[in-house]
Amino acid sequence: MTRDIEQDIEHWVRPEIRALSAYHVPDPGDCIKLDAMENPYRWPGELVNAWLERLRGVSINRYPDPGARRLQSALRIAMEVPDAMSVLLGNGSDELIQMIVQTLAAPGRVILAPEPTFVMYRLIAQVVGLRFVGVPLREDFALDPETMLEAIELHQPAVIFLAYPNNPTGNLFDAAALRRVIEAAPGLVVVDEAYAAFASDSFMARLTEYSNLLVLRTVSKMGLAGLRLGLLVGPQAWLAEIDKTRLPYNIGVLNQASAEFALEHRAVLEAQTAQIRSDRAALLAALRALPMLQVYPSEANFILFRTALGRADALFEGLRSRGILIKNLSPAGGALRDCLRVTVGAPEENQAFLDALRDLL
Ligand SMILES: Cc1ncc(COP(=O)(O)O)c(C=O)c1O
Question: pTM surpassing 0.90?
Fold first, then answer.
């Protein structure tokens, strides 16, 4: 007897899950890849050799240190974690977002974030079965504290996510507005600092001022996206609860050894991120000199720009056919209509992007 799969799926998979689309990652083919906020630089050959040598010593037959203690100590130093705060590691910061939401999940609860923002907050809330409330940013993508406070009062969210700088808009919200949100929040506030390496401010040192504040970081944007390693920083009491949702051994032995090695050589990564920050300024200036674009300021390693009405899809496709992959945000609609996002690449990649864009405009 063959069963009707469609019927089974309709019966067993929750409607919210059936309504979702899986997170789509396009195949870059041979394109210059400026779509995913990656650091474009590889390591010098001698560093690669030393890294591979280090991996020789790893016991692949053993489970990893479940608490990744050596790696945690190195991350505490590299990320200037306050002594009084604890650290929890995730397989990418995505996993930590999921763990936070799972920990606070209960029927009827709300996850809240300003929008547009990082799409995983909404996606994870929906997968876990919670309601997601997106609070519109102002037209210039600034955080409107009054609208946020009203939404907090109305929805009493269990968790508020604030990307600082925000993705995909690239701006840093006003720190005083963020403080008001943290003070008004009935539950947890997670300041997601995925782009800290490129930003002029951080809430890491302010953790000691608030008991409901957590700071999320990742090593992805500083040049280790392939590793999948994120860290959550906050009071031990909160992290101990969130840690209960962690699958054992979530950071593999190769990841632990590689991240420890990379942090021992973090001057190399820091030189790369400094280069990206300076190339961001050049790319911003060059984009601003092009006609018919509205270019938004950025404290991250990407730049958001708005094209003339209805032109984003054609520009995106035109760039792609010239071998350059960026991110088309226009299909998301709303405030992101006509918007494209480009990651700051190596100087020759940025130049190829600018040449192609100039051609298309
Ligand atoms: C704001 C923000 N947070 C978190 C992440 C996830 O980073 P990862 O899972 O690579 O640590 C991203 C990735 O784009 C992001 O933009």
Answer: yes
- Pocket perturbation via mutation, ligand 1, pick of 91, 94, 123 by most ligand atoms within 8 A of CB: 94
Distance 120 CA to ligand 1 centre (A): 8
Distance CA 272, CA 260 (A): 18
pLDDT value for 23: 77
Mutational pocket test of ligand 1: of 115, 218, 251, the residue with most ligand atoms within 8 Å of the beta carbon: 218
pLDDT at residue 205, rounded to an integer:
98
Over residues 125-184, the pLDDT tens digits come to: 999 999 999 999 999 999 999 999 999 999 999 999 999 999 999 999 999 999 999 999
Provide the mean pLDDT of the chain. Answer: 96
Tell me: the pLDDT tens digits for 331-345? 999 999 999 999 999
Percentage, residues of the chain above pLDDT 70: 100
Ligand 1 surroundings by CB, under 6 angstroms: 37, 92-94, 118, 163, 167, 192, 194, 218, 220, 225, 230
pLDDT at 1: 66
Dist. CA 23 → ligand 1 center (Å): 13
